[in-house]
Amino acid sequence: MADPHVSGEVHHRACGVCPGRRHPVGEFDVFERPTAEAPFSPADGHRYLGDGTPVCVHPEKVGLPPGRYKSKGAPLVVQLDLPSDPSQVATHLHGVFHGTAPALLDDLIVQATDQIRRAFPELDALSVLRQALG
User: Fold this and answer.
1) pLDDT tens column, 16-74
2) How many whole angstroms separate alpha carbon 1 and alpha carbon 56?
3) Residue 59 contacts by C-beta under 8 Å, 6 or more apart in sequence?
């Protein structure tokens, strides 16, 4: 079995009953908010779809965009949008990088590097990324 998305050994914003603490990315769905489609199970304190798919209802805490990753095989993708002001890029990226799932970081770093080089040629992309990740 693959490691869970959120390791018990690290501090993470995910709830104590988040399926991300038991399952790897792709083995649970993420919804925008609680819904009757994924009711709370009093038996174990988790939410499930009718087919048994575990559901997280706090995308901002688990660091994943909403998606039907397990139940419908949705691809895990994230689109990075940089601010228009170059002085805000590092601060913006810091928030994005530190609030996202580790599984998304590589893709976000590649997107950030490309976007910085295209949108802000006066900035050194590597320096901005170091500042954002620091």
Assistant:
1) 778 888 888 899 999 999 999 999 999 998 999 999 999 999 998 888 899 999 999 99
2) 20
3) 30, 31, 32, 65, 66
Taking the C-alpha atoms of residue 19 and residue 114, their distance in angstroms, rounded to an integer, is 33
Instruction: For residues 126 and 39, give the distance between their C-alpha atoms in angstroms, rounded to a whole number.
Output: 45
Query: What confidence score (pLDDT) does residue 122 get?
Result: 97
Q: What are phi and psi of 46, to 5 degrees?
A: -110, 170
Per DSSP, the residues of 13-31 read: SS-TT-GGGTS-TTSSEE-
Crossing angle (nearest 10°) for helices 89-98 and 125-133: 50
Asked if 28 and 15 count as a contact pair (C-beta separation under 8 A), the reply is: no
Residues in the chain: 134
89 vs 93: CA distance, rounded Å: 6
CA atoms within 13 A on the CB side of 50: 2
Spatial distance between the Cα atoms of 74 and 76, rounded to a whole number of angstroms: 6
Q: How many CB atoms lie within 10 A of CB 102?
A: 13
